[in-house]
Description:
Elements: H1 2-32, H2 38-55, E1 58-64, E2 75-78, H3 84-92, E3 97-102, H4 111-115, E4 120-122, H5 127-142, E5 146-149, H6 169-177, E6 181-186, H7 189-192, E7 205-211, H8 225-244
Parallel strand pairs: 1-7, 2-5, 2-6, 3-4, 3-5
Antiparallel strand pairs: 6-7
Amino acid sequence: MKRFLKGLHRYLYLGTVVFFFFLLYPLLYYFSRKPERYARLNVLRRLLGFVSSAAAGLFYSYTFSEEIDWSRRYIICANHTSSLDITAVTLLVRGNFAFIGKEELLHNPVTGLFFKTIDIPVDRKSRMSSFRAFKKADEYLQKGMSVVIFPEGKIPDDYPPRLSDFKSGPFRLAIEHQIPIIPVTIRDTWRKMWDDGSLLGSKPGISHIYVHSRVETQGLTLDDADELSGRIFSIIKEGLTENET
Length: 245
């Protein structure tokens, strides 16, 4: 019975996403047509994330280690255990931003609109695709936008999920631009919906997100990328460990 209810809730959540997406589609489409409209597209994206989650009883609670000056540009790095993580980060970030995400999101009817316009799809098995993705991210950063990356590269196959090794790209990008990284520990979205919910379904509740102090990269060189990656990994992992105690 519990599994049935969780499966039912997943369809409820997916239904709310589709409903509000098509309700907002004329505005989403308009603001996705030109890059100079992307800031307002992100405002609508936050609205879509909030109303579709709230309608299914899904909410997000944020704890900040320090106040964030959203007038600055950042690379936001978060762990990844659930499709809900995209909404969790969307509701967190203020200002103009773009995700780097897996190429498969191009084919999703909802995420496809964003990944064909503002967001950056990447086939992590292709060096050329990765090169193009980080070149686009480089262009965005030069324009003052922030970039969101899940440095694990995918949702881990383990259940309960464990933090996987990070890819080096986000840290090299941060060092090249000498801009800060904001580590984000998404503590328990997987308890509400692991991965896309297709195996275990989903359930309503509050997910908890810890936003760590920014990590500056000024003065670092590309030789420091691995050390920086390890530092961010440790910060995010510590946030997960605190949640378990």
